[in-house]
Structures are given as structure tokens and as C-alpha cells.
Specification:
398 residues, alpha/beta, Spore Coat Polysaccharide Biosynthesis Protein SpsA, Chain A, 2 domains, seven-stranded mixed β-sheet, three-stranded mixed β-sheet, Glucose N-acetyltransferase, GNT1/Glycosyltrans_8, Nucleotide-diphossugar_trans
Length: 398
Amino acid sequence: MPLQWLRGRFAYTPLQTDDAAFSGSLPWKGRPSPTIFTLRQLKLAAFTILGLLLLSGVGVYNRDQIEAIRAAYSTSQHDESPDVKSVDWSRFAYVQYVTNKDYLCNSVMFFERLQELESKADRVLMYPSIMLADPHEKEHEDSSDDAKLLILAREKYNVKLDPISVQHRTGSDPTWADSFTKLLAFNQTKYGRVLSIDSDSTLLQHMDELFSLPPTTVAMPRAYWLHPDKHILSSQVILIQPSQVEFTRITSKINNAGRNDYDMELVNELYQDSAMVLPHRPYDLLTGEFSKDNHQWYLGSDEEAWDPVAVYNEAKLLHFSDWPLPKPWLDAPENLVREREPKCVAMMDGLGSCAARDIWRGIYEEFRERRERVCDTSPPETLDNGRRRRRSRRRLEH
């Protein structure tokens, strides 16, 4: 299922109350083209916003402020301005980290999506050096599947390969044992700014506008699903200004981390009171949000009506989180899927809506189909190897 189909079907429109009408009346309408600021207007807007933040004493960016900066640096082919073209995009990079073959595929999918969305910033992939010792190596017959995928990322999606050592720590939860590896992004000092995004996610829109925010060591959204009153930062999206000073602080924290400390605990300990806060709408949406009965924490209000179509349409990043359902590249029992998927809801007019369920199913289906397409490193089938494969299958069948 191509992303265009999914986004086309659920492009923004007021939520329908009739499922039949819903499934057939959501043509792609696109997003309105934002007004492009001139460079002078951009500077004025940035200083105005920064001044308001300083006066309020809170480094929190709301959605309107982000929209203003996004409009100024919009990179779509329809509304690009001379000011945008003059940006030195080589100073900025999206950074992914890899610890195993599953997440390698996820990262390549992430970069494939960035290319499709015409993002202009560099792309950097930090990967275990054992997968490909020489990042400039050419593919050959004996190349491993991991090496082939890395070379594919470099050649097809213009990814800069950076071999690293995985930062492994033995803790109480093996799921997050290698999560400190993402913090090596603080050492990408050749860039003025890097954007680290977890790869167990689906990118719906690029985030190039974030590179134009006022200077700050880190900018992160809140983990809105975790006790909003505690103001916990989410490490799923981190805008970083790399420096040797900060990397030294990070390294020290990693070396002294406790058994229950992982990347999220570490960045909160260091930056909870100083980070610029990005709005989680639209930068950090959990797929599990579509299954909830109460959406107050995500919406930020108990007065705003939950509209899954509008929420999906505004989102830039969907993070797969439907525990106990496993990640989409792992098999799950059908009964567990049915248990965790969003339920159809009754509307005031007596009709039902399955919009949330259909969106949720579409997200998972699109991810699986794209994963199979993007990460297939098998050689193109020729007449000879096609015959060999068919003979091999017949032997197995008999």
C-alpha cells in the first residue's frame, strides 16, 4: 500500500459519521501552501518569538511558532523561495543509528522516505563497523545482506555511512541495552545541527524547518503519554547542536549510568530544565493514541474533539507503540492484533465510524509492504536464476 494511497484516503476533511461516505469521499486535497517569509521577515519573526520566550522564562515552542518557521523554510517544490535555496543544507543532517539488521532496514526505509519527501539536509547513518568495515566499499558477490543494505543506502539515498561501536550496557531491560548508541549523534561535530529520530517509526512529512530554530543545545518534545505533570522529555526526536563539550558530558553520564538508566533517563537528567521544547503535535505521535478512549494528554485539552483523520493528517512522525503488540516487522497473533486495534465508535446520529481503525491498519500495512520493497537486496531475477529458484522450490515441495 503506497503512502500516497494512505495519505490520499485520509487527507484532511471534517470527520464523516457514515462509514460508507467516509471510505469514499476523502480525496487528496493537499495542504495549503504557507506564505513564504523574506529573510528580513524571518529574522524579525525569529527575534520576536525568542523575545517572547525570554520574557515568559519558558523555552517552549507552540505549534503556531513552529508553523511560522516552517513556512519560512518550506522546501516543497511548489513554494520554494530564493531564501530557502540560499540555505547551506550541508550544515544540517538527519541522523539514524543502527544496532542490528532489523533496525538497519528501518533506517534505510527512513532515508528512502526523506528522499521521497525531497528533504534537503544531509543523511547520516551510524552503524556497527562489523557490518561494513570500510564505508566506501563497493558491493561484491560475497557481501553480506547488511553490507548490501548499507551500500544501497549510500548509493541510492545519498546516505553518509559512519561506522561506530555500539554503546551496550547491561541493564534490567535488554530491549534498551543499546539505546545509548543514539547519543553518539552529539559527536557529529562536522554539522551545526543534527536531527536524531528513532527508526521504529513512519515519517509522514520531513522536518527540515526544525534546523532553522534559534540556537539551542537540544530541542525535544514532551513524552505526552507519560505523566504530563512531570514534563518528561521524549528522546524519540532530538534536535542536537553537536559539540565536544556536550559529547563529553554525555559520555560521562553513559559511563556512570545505573542499571535502570537508558537514553531517555539520561537526556532528561541533563536537559529537562534547559531543553527547548518542541510541540509533540505534530512531531511525536504514538500509534497507540488511535486506540485510546481518552485523548486529553495528546490534544492538550479536554475540550477539543478527537478527530483521528485530522490528527493523522497533521502528524509528521508516527512512532510504533502499541504494547503488548510487537513492532510491525515482527509477527503477532491475530487475536492480539484484534485486541489492540482501535475500535469502531458510535456517533451521535446513531451511525458508527471506523476511521481510527482504518488509519491504524493502513499505517501498519503500508510499513510492512514498504519494508519488503525497500530492504530487498536479492539480485534482480534473470532467466537463469529464476529457473534455479523454481527448481529449488520444487525440490522443497517434494
